[in-house]
Each structure stands twice: as C-alpha cells, then as structure tokens.
C-alpha cells in the first residue's frame, strides 16, 4: 500500500521546533535547514551546525531523524545529514578575546586531578571538532605544558604571544615563560596583570571554547576573571572522600560568590579496576561527588577512575592519547558530552525563547 504523500512544507513545519544546540534558537530562524527533499517515501534533510556544538552533532542527527519519523504521517525513511556552518565568535569583555564560551576548571585543593580534567576537556572538545584554547592560569603550579608534552617557549608577533599549537589545540601557560624549576612569587596585582595579559595579549584567534585551568582553592584569580570577561561558568573537580568534598563545596561557594555559575562537578579517582583480577576497589569511597552535586542542585558531569595509564600518559605529555584508549576515552568523552549538552539545554530553555524540542 502506498504511503500518504507529503510535501516539503510539512517537513519544514515539523523542523520548526528543533533548536540549534549552540544558540538555543530555532534552526529554521537561523537559516540552518539547508536542504529538504521528499521523494516518495524518502525524506532527506540537511542541517548546518557550528563547530561549537560538534560533540552534539550525532545526537542532533538522531533526534531530528526520530522527530521526523514520529511527526510525519506514514512510515517514512528519513535521512538527516549534518553539514558544517561557520559562525565566528563575537569579541567579549572588551579585551580582544573572541570566544563563545569561557569555562574555568577549579578545585577546592591541589592534587585531585584538576589539570588532568582541564586538559582532557580541552583535548576532548578539540578532538570532537570544536575550536579550543587552553589557558593554564594555575600560576603556582602550571602543569598543563607537562601534561601536553610542550617545552618550547611561545613566540611573539605584532605584540601578541603566539599560543602553542598541540594537535590544533591552542595552549598558553606561565610554565612556558618561567625556566623549569624556578619559583614565582605572586602578589595579587601581579597575578591580576599576568592573567589579563594572557587573555588579552595571546593570539587566541576565533574560539568556540576557552578552557581555563585555575589555581586550586584561591579566589583571587576567579575574581580577576569575573571582572575581565563574562565567564560561561566553572567546572569543579574533586575526589570522592568526605574531606575532599568539603573542599569542593568551598570551591563552589567561592565561584558563587563572584557570580560564576557552576556548570558541573567531575569526580576524579572514583575507583580502581585492578588489571590483575578485574576487581573494583573504591579507594576513596564511592559516588560521593554525585551525591553532593545532587544535594547542591548542580549537574554531575561524570567520573574518571584511577588508571595507571592516565598517570603515565600525563607524565609522557600524551594527554591526547587518553582518547585513543578504550578504557580511558569513554570517561573523558562523557564529561565533554555532558558539559556541551547541559550548555545546549540551558540555551534552549532560556527566555525569551519559546520552549523547543532540543536533542
Ligand atoms: N584518574 C587518574 N588516574 C591516574 N592518575 C591520575 C588521574 N587523575 C590525575 N592523575 C595524576 O595525578 C597527578 C595530579 O594530577 P593533576 O596535576 O591533574 O592534579 P591537580 O589537581 O591539577 O594538581 P595541582 O593543583 O597540584 O596542579 C598527576 O600525576 C596525574 O597524572
């Protein structure tokens, strides 16, 4: 029996409720529905999406496919293609920085894996197809160059520092300007000046995300940052034991104090799967950060187990390698995905937009 015939208008109508994951606005309003064709039972659609939402492209493709299948009459064969759309970032904060989202990664105390998570977020978003910068603002212990295996000093051109390119990721760190092993004593105004310079005088180019690895605990840099640029928000990294969670709560309170929204909590060193017998050991307890996040009403972005290979790759400067390892990659990918998905949902639910069916 032949299916009831439909036309392009019906397909375009059905697409009106679909939001762009970057802006939260209807794809149809932003001219992001590129091709719609109906031939017999086949419905082919192509949608243009920006690199900002690259981790969500597959999600969007699936969502649009299912949405069309359920809202069009008959049992249609729907094919959705995603094509890239270039929409450059706008300058923010009056300091010449062009980035769509600026995300601080902080922790209540040192040694919980904050830099590992910040670097992994940057690498993961970069690998997914986003344009990413990574600023190591942990001036007391800049470990980002070590985690990315960078030793060269940045060059300067036209009064701008050229960030180091690591597989397309743009990185800048105080650790690149100070000889290794040399201690830097920072006073408040110097710190303020250094961060301002790193943001303003680095040739970041057009970024989807600038990830900032914050120093642990202190409020100084958060305050400086919140005064300089509108931060999208902060990710707080912690380990599962009670005493570490107390520090995480303090970090959340500190970000709240300077009006930086909390985008989520990441639990690092969640458990250890013994490679010899496959047994799981909850070395620092289990699930504490997830429970704390729920209690505080902030999103939980994911957990990362203790893996010897994660430490080894960190020491070898091969943080990108975690994404080629089937044991490590899913954890870091999940965190990148949750973060971008939460950002997309926030955008879509923000008034004055009509509520749309996102993802
Ligand atoms: N999930 C993990 N499994 C194994 N090792 C890890 C894990 N997360 C972090 N590490 C290791 O722990 C050490 C500390 O990590 P990292 O430098 O990221 O912590 P941090 O919180 O940024 O510390 P600091 O604030 O002192 O810079 C590093 O050697 C890192 O490779």
Element layout with pairings:
Blueprint: H1 8-15, E1 33-39, E2 42-50, H2 57-71, E3 77-85, E4 91-92, E5 97-107, H3 114-128, E6 132-136, H4 144-148, E7 156-157, E8 160-161, E9 164-166, E10 169-173, H5 188-200, E11 206-213, H6 220-228, E12 233-238, H7 242-257, E13 262-273, E14 280-281, H8 288-296, E15 300-306, H9 308-316, H10 329-349
Parallel strand pairs: 2-3, 5-11, 5-12, 6-10, 6-11, 12-13, 13-15
Antiparallel strand pairs: 1-2, 4-5, 7-8, 9-10, 13-14
Helix pairs in contact: 3-10, 5-6
Adenosine-5'-triphosphate binds at residues 107, 110-116, 138, 141, 143, 216, 268-269, 304, 306-307, 310-311, 314.
Keywords: ATP-binding, Hydrolase, Iron, Iron-sulfur, Metal-binding, Nucleotide-binding
Protein name: Iron-sulfur cluster carrier protein
Binding site for ATP: 108-115
Could you list some keywords that capture this structure?
359 residues, alpha/beta, GMP Synthetase, Chain A, domain 3, Rossmann fold, 10-stranded mixed beta sheet, 33% helix, binds adenosine-5'-triphosphate, Mrp-like_CS, iron-sulfur, 4 iron, 4 sulfur cluster binding, Mrp/NBP35_ATP-bd, hydrolase
